[in-house]
Specification:
CATH architecture: Roll
Number of strands: 8
CATH superfamily: 2,3-Dihydroxybiphenyl 1,2-Dioxygenase, domain 1
CATH topology: 2,3-Dihydroxybiphenyl 1,2-Dioxygenase, domain 1
CATH class: Alpha Beta
Distance between the termini: 28 Å
Number of helices: 2
Helix content: 10-25%
Strand order of the largest sheet: 1-4-3-2
Length: 122
């Protein structure tokens, strides 16, 4: 039985990477066992690891669900200076989404459910 999820992204400069992900996730890491590795618990049982190393090509995107994609896009473009981050929607899909990359080429993104019943209360 699967009971937790971890996803890892790699960055070539750990100090810069840590700071970048700290802004993205709006909090400090929950666990830093040693230099070059940090983990954030995004929601209970769902962890994002940032490790120093060579980023994997063509992986992802890892998308995070948000309650207001427009506001989050604005915040990230301003605070992290993200250049390319368009928001998309399609009539047959009940969500808006967008993808961007971190400075190391890891593909990330956000999504927002259009059906307000699916949104979690924050």
């Amino acid at each position: 039985m699967i009971f937790e999820i971890t996803n890892q992204v790699r960055v070539t400069d750990f100090n810069k990477g840590y700071k970048w992900y700290e802004v993205l996730l709006s909090k400090k890491a929950d666990f830093i066992p040693h230099h070059g590795f940090a983990e954030w618990e995004i929601i209970p049982g769902c962890w994002l690891q940032v490790a120093e190393g060579i980023p994997s090509e063509a992986s992802g995107p890892l998308r995070f669900g948000v309650t207001d994609i427009i506001a989050e896009r604005y915040r990230l473009v301003k605070e992290l200076e993200i250049d390319e981050f368009e928001i998309y929607s399609r009539e047959e899909v009940s969500a808006k989404w967008g993808t961007f990359t971190d400075p190391w080429g890891n593909r990330l993104g956000l999504f927002e459910y259009l059906d307000k019943k699916k949104k979690m209360t924050v």
